[in-house]
Amino acid sequence: MTAAPPLLLVSDHVEGSLHVRTVPDGTETGRLTGRHLSEHAGFLALPGGRAACVDDRRGELLVLDPFGDALVQAAIPVAVPAEHLACDPSGRWVAVTTGLGKNAEPWSDLLTVIDLATGDAARIRTRVGEPGVTVLGYDDPLVVLRHREPGALAVHRFADLLGAPPGCPPVAPHADLPLPDDGHGDAQDPNSGQVFAATGDGVHRARREGDKLVPEPVIPWGSPARGWYLRLDPRRRALWSTLRGGPADPLRWPEWTNQAWRHDLETNRTTVTELGPGLVFRLALARHHTAFTHVHPDGDELILLDADDTARRVPLPAMDGAPRRGGTPWEGVQRRAVAASPGADWVAVTRGGHGEVHVFDARTGSEAARLELNTPLHHGGHAMLRTQTDGAEGDPVGR
Predict the structure, then answer these.
(1) What is the pLDDT, as a whole number, of residue 3?
(2) Which InterPro entries does this entry report, sorted A to Z (predicted)?
(3) Amino acid 267: pLDDT
(4) What is the spatial distance between Cα 117 and Cα 91, in angstroms, rounded to a whole number?
């Protein structure tokens, strides 16, 4: 039997659409309209090439099966606006936290937990903020919320939350660990039962023991900069981040420094690679490469980092409405999303405002295809690339 080609999921969360295309040829295999996916919560990889995401307008968790007969496998009500999304390593137990949405200050303290096997769900109140989340364990999972100001890792038994009475009752954590107040970025390693949180002084880590967490030594950044994004590489059991340094003023974003940060969980060795000034944030993991998009007024590029930390730089066509000098890189500008699969060598990069997706062969850096969508992909949209057996679900946190 011939293996199905990789599939690219591209969301225009402003226009309210989701496109599914084969890679690299771009054949459309599915589309959703009237669906405004949470760009911040992102896509969560599930076993079998499936994915989960949150429709922020309808208030639903969507379980998508792009390789199946029906794209939407399930739609389950959840509290919104969705901030972070995670599941246990089996892909059964899911947690969704809430954040700011279009508000200036945190206002929601609602957390939704779901058993995808039965469809059972519950909403409870935790603490107002923008909590990150991980779900540890298989048979008796723990929900770990990463809070800020005051910083903490708050531990809840999943079964207790799922069994909470109706009415969104407040639930105190079963246990907690203190963290610095500036945590941002979460990951877990299913093999070791460790949870990780990015802070200014490094990556705080803890391991599960029973129903509690035991702290372990902090992993230093090895740089005066810090990471605001953290993810697990299931290919090599490593943690990845992008370290940002330079002036704090967002109007001076072209002067920001950026470094690729990789920490090998087997050897405890950290590698830092220079990426260049400007805006670099999220990353994507292909079979043999790690992909970054680098945005700068002097020109954008795709950076492909191989296993030896050698960087290949590929120019990208300019975006109308791109971030400019004298403005911020966030408000009222176009951006780029990057997607890859650990089971393939393709890398997809969106061109915000133009409705285009560029597909590159990571082995050569050459552009293999340019996909035209009928939506503009405002703010760069959001994207995920999957094969049915790529193992991307080894990272059970939404990206």
Answers:
(1) 82
(2) Haem_d1_sf (IPR011048)
(3) 96
(4) 9
**Encoded tokens for 300:** 């954008």
Spatial contact of 378 and 11, defined as CB atoms under 8 Å apart: no
Q: Assign 221 to helix, strand or coil.
A: coil
DSSP β-bridge partners for residue 316:
300
pTM greater than 0.85: yes
Residue 100 burial (10 A CB sphere; 0-12, 13-18, 19+) = middle
CA dist., res. 316 & res. 356, Å (int): 12
Q: Is the dihedral of CA 55, 58, 60, 63 positive or negative?
A: negative
Residue 192 neighbours by CB under 8 Å, 6+ apart: 207, 265
- 269 beta partners: 264
Q: Are 72 and 32 in contact (CB under 8 A)?
A: yes
* CB-CB neighbours of 115 under 10 Å: 16
Give the per-residue pLDDT at 186: 98
User: How far apart, in whole angstroms, are the C-alpha atoms of residue 377 and residue 355?
Assistant: 5
Nearest to 377 by CA among 4, 60, 16, 7: 16
Hey, what are 279's tokens? Answer: 């805006």
CB atoms within 10 A of CB 369: 17
DSSP per-residue string spanning 152-212: EEEEEEHHHHHTPPSS--B---SEEEE--TT---EEEETTTTEEEEEETTEEEEEEEETTE
pLDDT of res. 383: 98
Task: Give the C-alpha separation, 73 to 30, whole Å.
Answer: 13
CA distance 366 to 82: 36
For every residue of 366-395, DSSP letters joined together read EEEEEEE-SS--GGG-EEEEE-TTS-GGGS
Structural contact between residues 355 and 373, judged by C-beta atoms closer than 8 angstroms: yes
Cα Rg, the chain, nearest whole Å: 20
- pLDDT attached to residue 44: 98
Q: What is the pLDDT of residue 139?
A: 86
Which of the residues in the chain have pLDDT under 70?
A: 1
Q: Cα separation of 74 and 52, whole Å?
A: 9
Domains within the chain, CATH numbers bracketed? 7-394 (2.130.10.10)
d(CA 122, CA 196) in angstroms, rounded, equals 26
- Name the token pair of 67: 């390789």
